[in-house]
Amino acid sequence: MIDHIVIIKFSETTTNEQLAEVCARYKALKDRIAGIVDIQAGINFSEKSQGYQVLLSVRFENRSALEAYGPNPDHQAVAAFIRDSGRVDSIVLDIEI
Questions:
Q1: Pairing between strand 54-60 and 2-10?
Q2: Checking CA distances to 50, which of 7, 69, 89, 92 falls within 20 to 30 Å?
Q3: pTM assigned to the model
Q4: Portion of the chain with pLDDT greater than 90, in percent
Q5: Which secondary-structure segment (H or E) carries 17?
Q6: Average pLDDT, the chain
C-alpha cells in the first residue's frame, strides 16, 4: 500500500470556510476514484506547523492507483479548488507501507 500525504499553506486571506471546503471536497474523492483504501483531511491546530494549515492523506492499494490518481479529473477539480482558495505552498510525501 501507498500513503500519499500533502500539507498545504494558504494565503492569509483564505477563510476557515474555504479550508473546511478543501477538506470536504478532498474526502469526497474516496468514493469517486478507484484504488483508494482510505482518505483523511483536516485543519491543523498545532502552533508547530510553520504556517501549514491543512493536511490531506490518502492510502492507495498500490503505486498504480497513485499514478492514476494524479491526472484523474475529480482529483484535478479538487486541486484547482485548492489553488483558487489561495494555496501558497505544499509539501508532498509518498511512502510505501
A1: antiparallel
A2: 69
A3: 0.93
A4: 99
A5: helix 16-27
A6: 97
